[in-house]
Amino acid sequence: MDVPALIRPNTKLRVPVKLANLAPGEQAQLVVSAVDVGILNLTGYEPPDPDAFYLGQRKLAAEVRDLYGQLIDGMQGARGQIRTGGDASAGTLQGSPPSGPPLALYSGIVTVDEDGAAEIEFDVPAFTGTARVMAVAWNKTQVGHGTGDVVVRDPVVVTTTLPRFLAMGDRSTLRLDLDNVEGASGDYTIALAATGPIALPETERVLGIDAKTRNAAAFPIAAQGVGERASTSR
Predict the structure, then answer these.
(1) Residues 17 and 69 placed together within one structural domain of the fold
(2) Do 89 and 177 belong together in one domain?
(3) In this predicted structure, what is the pLDDT of residue 57?
(4) Is the pLDDT of residue 140 over 50?
(5) How far apart are CA 144 and CA 130, in angstroms?
(6) Domain check: are 18 and 117 in the same one?
(7) What is the CATH number of the domain that holds 187?
(8) Which of 56, 120, 179, 225 could cross-link with 15 by S-S, CB 3.0 to 4.6 Å?
(9) How are beta strands 6-7 and 110-111 bridged, if at all?
(10) pLDDT for residue 112 is more than 80
(11) On the CB side of 219, how many CA atoms lie within 13 Å of its CA?
(12) 72 CB contacts (<8 Å, ≥6 apart)?
């Protein structure tokens, strides 16, 4: 699997895949996914590894059978279970949740051609971060997998910090952090636009940023009315 090291947001990610050890004309399928590494780090998710699942060495399984496992839970009226352990589950999260919309793309089942090759194409949205591309391939007698990371970013990365909510008449600040990762040194024009009952006294500003440096700008905002209420489902 050959993935690019860097792509831009709002473009296409093309993932060419080539399967080896296939007999001429032998049919095989694969699935490919591209997921934000920030999401995977939350639970320490490991890429699928069918090789280890089917062919890896397994440890000896042990099971305890006794009458205590047949006890009835008097509070719930259900069978009880003996549980042991401590607080290991408290350390499951490995990082902070992503601040932007999640990126999780899936190809579905793809059948490779006679040469064992296929190209998967994803429409990448306005996303900034690292996407982990994971592929799993199989046929009647074989399995395989592959992974690769792709950095998705613009030459100048913009991060926005907004208040979580505003009441009518509230005033606050919208902060923009600009990281000039690959762009040239110079003046960059920031233009803002808002929808709904939000007032922006200032909508445009010119900010000078040198290459490989960061800068920030703060804009005042105010709430002028009642906006749409966020709905929740239970």
Answers:
(1) yes
(2) no
(3) 85
(4) yes
(5) 23
(6) yes
(7) 2.60.40.10
(8) 120
(9) unpaired
(10) yes
(11) 23
(12) 78, 79, 80
Q: Which domain holds residue 49?
A: 6-152
Question: For residue 132, which amino acid is it?
Answer: R
Task: Determine the Cα–Cα distance for residues 29 and 111; give it in Å rounded to an integer.
Answer: 4
Give the count of alpha carbons within 13 A of 158, CB side only.
14
* pLDDT of 12 higher than 50: yes
**Is the Cβ–Cβ distance between 150 and 7 less than 8 Å?**
yes
13 contact partners, CB below 8 Å, separation of at least 6:
3, 4, 7, 34, 105, 121, 122, 124, 131, 133, 150
∠ at Cα 67 (62, 69), nearest 5°?
Answer: 60
CB atoms within 10 A of CB 226: 10
Q: What's the whole-model pTM score?
A: 0.72
Q: What are phi and psi of 152, to 5 degrees?
A: -115, 115
Q: Residue 232 has what pLDDT?
A: 45
Q: How many CB atoms lie within 10 A of CB 136?
A: 19
Per-residue pLDDT at 101: 77
